Structure formats: C-alpha cells, structure tokens
C-alpha cells in the first residue's frame, strides 16, 4: 500500500474512533463508521441501536444511509471505514450497495461478516451481488 493511502486510512480510522467514543459516551457499543468517495467523507455513523430502540441503527448502516442520500444507491466507488468488523446485517447492506472497499480496525469473529462462519461480506456465492469488496484489516 502506498504511504499516502496508509496515512489517509489512518486518518479516517482515527475519525471512526472519535465517533465510537461518542457512541460509548451515550451508552452504546463503541462503534464508529464512515464512507469516503474520492477523498471526501459522504457519510458518518455512530452506533445507536439502544438509544433509537432500532437494531438496524448500527454505525455502518447509519453511515451508508447518509452516503446514499448524498451519492445515490451505487456506492461502488466508496470505501467504508469502521472501528469493528461489520456484522452479518451490516455486511448485507454493504454488499447491496456494492461498496468497493472496507477497512476494519478490529475483527469480531462470532458475528463478523468476514471472519465468522457466515462470511456475507466476502462470499462469492450470491451472484447478484457481484464481486465482494476488498477487505483490509488495519
């Protein structure tokens, strides 16, 4: 990986950590996520399942919702950054919107979309999704 990309990745992951700390301060799981297209942040998400009383308010889904409003449904040019490995639910949403790259700070083996027994994020077995995103663990 080029040094400039690594620096950008770290900067975006640092922002995710700030978002995760906001979630923690609100009594949520400490997860923060954002989507980047062409060097610009197009969506940010803070874990909010407890406060919103809605299990779908995961940080990744919230960031994707914002990005869809800004960019439209096809996010194939986007990179999603997140403090924790997207769960199976979030992985489905990532695949649906064809996000091209996912950068993860911490794996979550039992329910993670890449490392669990249900690798929704990386499978090639669902033809309508096309190719899986590039997944990088930072």
Compute the separation of the termini in Å. Answer: 12 Å
What is the helical fraction, as a range of percent?
A: 25-40%
| CA-atom Rg in angstroms | 14 Å
- Sheet with most strands: strand arrangement: 2-1-3-4-5
List the secondary-structure elements in sequence, H or E. HEEHHEHEE
Shape: globular
Average pLDDT level: 94
Question: Structural class of the helix and strand makeup?
Answer: alpha/beta
Uncertain stretches of 5 or more adjacent residues = none
Q: How would you sum up this structure, described in words?
A:
The protein is α/β, with parallel strands linked by helices and 138 residues long. Helix content is 36%, strand content 22%. It is built from 4 helices and 5 strands; from the N terminus they run αββααβαββ. A 5-stranded mixed β-sheet has the order 2-1-3-4-5. Helix 4 links the parallel strand 3 and strand 4. The longest helix has 23 residues. It is globular.
């Amino acid at each position: 990986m080029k040094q400039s990309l690594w620096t950008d990745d770290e900067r975006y992951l640092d922002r995710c950590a700030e978002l995760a700390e906001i979630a923690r301060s609100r009594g949520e799981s400490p997860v923060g996520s954002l989507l980047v297209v062409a060097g610009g942040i197009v969506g940010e998400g803070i874990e909010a399942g407890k406060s919103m009383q809605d299990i779908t308010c995961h940080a990744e889904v919230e960031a994707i919702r914002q990005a869809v409003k800004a960019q439209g449904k096809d996010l194939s040019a986007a990179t999603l950054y997140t403090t924790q490995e997207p769960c199976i639910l979030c992985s489905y949403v990532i695949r649906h919107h064809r996000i091209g790259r996912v950068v993860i700070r911490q794996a979550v083996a039992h329910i993670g979309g890449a490392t669990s027994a249900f690798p929704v994020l990386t499978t090639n077995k669902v033809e309508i999704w096309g190719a899986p995103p590039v997944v990088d663990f930072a």
